[in-house]
Amino acid sequence: xxxxxxxxxxxxxxxxxxxxxxxxxxxxxxxxxxxxxxxxxxxxxxxxxxxxxxxxxxxxxxxxxxxxxxxxxxxxxxxxxxxxxxxxxxxxxxxxxxxxxx
Length: 102
Hints:
Elements: H1 3-8, H2 19-31, H3 36-43, H4 47-55, H5 61-71, H6 75-78, H7 84-97
């Protein structure tokens, strides 16, 4: 495994939770008077899969685009791309929150 992959955790699943993107999607849902369950019904996918997408645990571009369209927001705003370094920092913060040594 390369040093960059080891540091960032790229290539390993699941991705760390991206709290910023989750907050942006939840705010957009509230603005449209929707919740995750109603969004899942609209998309015809499971609620748990929608949660994985909005928290960054899964990276389905197709579903991200569909969510952005439903919420009338740009995809890049709701689901900002992350650099390997940003993913590494999120993974480190997640481990620290969970009480694991990083």
